[in-house]
Amino acid sequence: MRYQKIYLRFLSLVQAIEAKGELPALDPEAKQLLEMVAVKHGAGQDMTISDAMGLKQIASPATLHRKIDILRGLGLIETHFEGDNKRTKYLRPTDQAAQYFSTLGSIIENAGATTV
User: Fold this and answer.
1) Residue closest to 77 by CA, chosen among 109, 43, 108, 32
2) Are 103 and 17 spatial neighbours (Cβ–Cβ below 8 Å)?
3) Residue range 30-89, pLDDT digits in tens
4) Average pLDDT over residues 85-110
5) Does residue 116 surpass a pLDDT of 60?
6) Which residues pair with 100 in a beta bridge?
7) Can you tell me the distance from the alpha carbon of 76 to that of 85, in angstroms, rounded to the nearest whole number?
8) Of the candidates 95, 93, 63, 96, which has an alpha carbon nearest to the alpha carbon of residue 79?
9) CB count in 10 Å sphere of residue 19
10) Rounded distance, CA 93 to CA 88, Å?
11) What is the dihedral of CA 58, 62, 68, 74, to 10 degrees?
């Protein structure tokens, strides 16, 4: 029950901060895509755009393409090439995405501290 309270407090705090415009309001698909790009990057393997388009558990390829464009427009992900290969584009989170995840981490910490 304690963890349920912490998680619900976390969700409440995130919603409040998003409503104030302090965090970008991302729809579930964009949020999940950003998280997957960040996790892959954190493991030292940037995701290709083709890999991202194949994430059928999130959405269709067309929807994922739109979400990539949205996340790029918000400055949360960027594309890059690796080495001399100019045919394959990779996705990686930006410094702004790092700040986004840092804010979420702080909210989690706060949610745990205020429900103990």
Assistant:
1) 32
2) yes
3) 999 999 999 999 999 999 999 999 999 999 999 999 999 999 999 999 999 988 888 999
4) 94
5) no
6) none
7) 24
8) 93
9) 10
10) 17
11) -100
Provide the residue type at 89 as one letter: K
Q: Burial code of 91-105, b = ≥16 C-beta within 10 A, e = fewer?
A: bebeeebeebeeebe
Domain count, the chain: 1
Buried b / exposed e across 52-89, counting CB within 10 Å, b at 16+? bbebeebbeeebbeebbebbeebebbbeeeeeeeeeeb
Range of the domain at 54: 2-114
pLDDT at 115: 60
**Which CATH number does the domain housing residue 51 bear?**
1.10.10.10
This prediction's pTM: 0.89
- Supply the pLDDT for residue 25: 82
